[in-house]
Amino acid sequence: MRICAIKDCTSSTYQLKKWKKTFCEVHQCNSGTGWCVCPPPFDLIPFPTERKDPELRAKWIKLVNRQLKPGKNWKPDDDSRICSKHFEGGNPVPTLNLGYELTMPLKLRPPPKERQPLIQKSKKSSETKVKTDENENVVHLTEDNSVTCTVPLQFEHDYCAKCVCNANCECLGCLEKSKMINNLSYQLERLQMVTTNESKLHGKKNVHKRFTKTDKKVRANTGLPNKSTLLNLYKYLKPKSHRLRYWEGSKKVISTKVPRRFKKSPKKSGPEKKLGALDELVLTLMKLRLDINFEFLADLFGVSQGTCSKIFNTWIKFLSKELRPLIFWPDKEIVRKLLPPSLIKQYAKLRCTIDCTEVFIEKPRHLELQALTWSDYKQHNTVKVLIGIAPNGAISFLSKCYGGRMSDRQIVRESSFLDLIDPGDIILADRGFPIREELLLRYANLVIPPPGSGIQQMTRENVEKTKSIANVRIHVERAINRIKWFAILKNTLPITLVPLVDDIVSVCASLCNLLKPLVTR
C-alpha cells in the first residue's frame, strides 16, 4: 500500500480503492469503474527521478522534512508518493499542508499579473505600439517578438475570438482554457482505459459462446445432448467451482512452516482467473470431445498453453468426483420394472451386460510398464477397463483402468463387480469371460455364446442361441461406442495424460448417461 510521505497525511491507495467501490449517482455505477469518469479525490504523485530532475527531487525531499535519526535525513524509495492535496495550482513543488510552517521563502511561480484598464505609451525603447482595432485593444511586442495581450479582445461572437497570447501567457483566459483542456484529456484517458479493459475482458470472458450457440454445436463440441443440459450442468457445478485449488504441477516445494489455522475458510488467494467457470468447463469438454492439443486450445480461448493445461488437469479431477454418482448400480426391483419388453420373455432376470474395452496409449519408456500395458490382441500399448450396462443401456458399472496385458477374467476378479451380484441374477458376457464358477458361488448365472466346434459346423440350436445373445449383447458395444465418441479415448492417449486416464474414462462415461437411453421401452 502506498501512503503519502507528508506528515499526518492519510492519503493512500487504500482510500482510492475504497472510493472506487462507492456508488456514483451521476453515472449509475461504481466510481472509477464502468462509464464513470468522475475524477478521484486525489492523485498519488511519484517523486522526480535523480536522472531526469535531481534538483526538483532534492526540493521535494527538503520540503517533506522527515528524519529517521538525528542528523540522518529520510530518502524516498520507488513507492514513495505525495498526494495532489499538497500542490497549489500548476506549481511543481508541494507547498500546502506540509505539517509545519515554511521558514524559508521558496521561489515559486509568480502569480498572473493584474490587467490594467488602459495601456499608456511605453517608456522603454524596446517596445512598440501596434495598431488598435475599433475597440482600441492594445497589444505589445517585446524584444524577442513575443506577443502579450493586456486587454481581453472583444468580438461580436465568442467563437470568432482568437487569442494572440504567447506560449507562456498566464492571463485568466489562458488558465481557464488550460484547465478545461486538462479535464477533458483526463476524461478521455479514463474512457479509453475503460474501453480497452472491456475489450480485453470481452475477448477472454464468454469465449464459449462461439462454440455453444446452438444445440448442434453443443453436441459436436462438448458431447452433451443440447444447450440446456450444458447450462444445467454448469448450474450444478458453479457453487463448488469457486473453491477449486488449481493444479500447479508435479513438482511442489514442501513448506516447513507451521500451518495456519483458520476459524473460517479464508478467501481464495492467488491471481485472478483469466477465464470464467463456464469457459473452463467448455474448454475441458472440448478437450475430451475433440482431443485438441493444448497449444491450439489455448489460442482458441486466448490464454497461455500452461494455463490451458492447468485448467484441464484441475477440472478433470473435479468433474470425475462430481459426476461419478451418475454411474450407479440400480436395485434389482427397479431393473425389473424398467426391463424392455423385448427381453422379458428370454431374459427376465437380466441384471447386467459386461464387456471390456481398450484405449491406446503412447509407449512408456520404462520396460516394466511396456510389458504391463502391451496388448497382444491390439498389438499396441493399451489400458483396459471393464464396463457394465443395465438392460436399458445405461452404464451401471465402471472399473478402474488396468494394463492391456491383464485378461478379462482377472479384471472381473480384481474389480468389485462380483460383490454387486445378487442371487438369481443373469449376467451376459462374451466368450472371453470364463467366470461361471465365480457367479455360481453367488447363485447367479452367466450367459455367453456357445463355443465353436472347430472344423464341424455349428448346430441350428447353437446358431439361434448365438444370435439371440448377440442381439442383446450388442447394446454394450453401442455403449462403448458412445464412450469412444469422445476422441480423447478414440485416439492414442499421450503419456502425460495416462495418470488421469481413470478420471477421463469416468467423466466420459458419466456424460454418456446424460444422453437418451439406448434401449427404449
Task: Please outline the helices and strands.
Elements: H1 13-20, E1 23-24, E2 29-30, E3 44-46, H2 54-64, E4 67-69, E5 72-73, E6 81-83, E7 128-129, E8 139-141, E9 147-149, H3 172-204, H4 215-222, H5 227-241, H6 277-290, H7 294-301, H8 305-323, H9 332-337, E10 350-360, H10 367-373, E11 374-375, E12 380-389, E13 395-398, E14 402-403, H11 408-414, E15 426-428, H12 436-440, E16 445-447, H13 460-484, H14 487-490, H15 501-512
Oligomeric organization of the protein chains: single chain
Give the biggest beta sheet: 7 strands, mixed
What does the overall shape look like? elongated
CATH topology assignment of the largest domain: Nucleotidyltransferase, domain 5
Uncertain residue segments: 118-162
The count of domains is 4
CATH architecture of the largest domain: 2-Layer Sandwich
Total DSSP helices: 15
Please identify the top-level CATH class of the largest domain. Answer: Alpha Beta
Structure report:
It is a single chain. By secondary structure, the chain is an alpha+beta fold. The protein folds into four domains: 1-113, no CATH class; 126-166, no CATH class; 189-248 and 274-322, no CATH class; 327-452 and 459-512, Nucleotidyltransferase, domain 5. Helix content is 35%, strand content 11%. The chain has 15 helices and 16 strands. It has helices at 13-20, 54-64, 172-204, 215-222, 227-241, 277-290, 294-301, 305-323, 332-337, 367-373, 408-414, 436-440, 460-484, 487-490, 501-512; strands spanning 23-24, 29-30, 44-46, 67-69, 72-73, 81-83, 128-129, 139-141, 147-149, 350-360, 374-375, 380-389, 395-398, 402-403, 426-428, 445-447. The strands form five sheets. Strands 10, 11, 12, 13, 14, 15 and 16 form a seven-stranded mixed beta sheet that branches. It has a three-stranded antiparallel beta sheet with strand order 7-8-9, with no helix packed on it. A two-stranded antiparallel ribbon has the order 1-2. A hairpin with a 4-residue loop joins strand 1 (23-24) and strand 2 (29-30). Helix 6 crosses helix 8, helix 7 (294-301) packs across helix 8 and helix 13 (460-484) crosses helix 15 (501-512). The radius of gyration is 40 Å and the shape is elongated. Mean pLDDT is 80; it is low at 118-162.
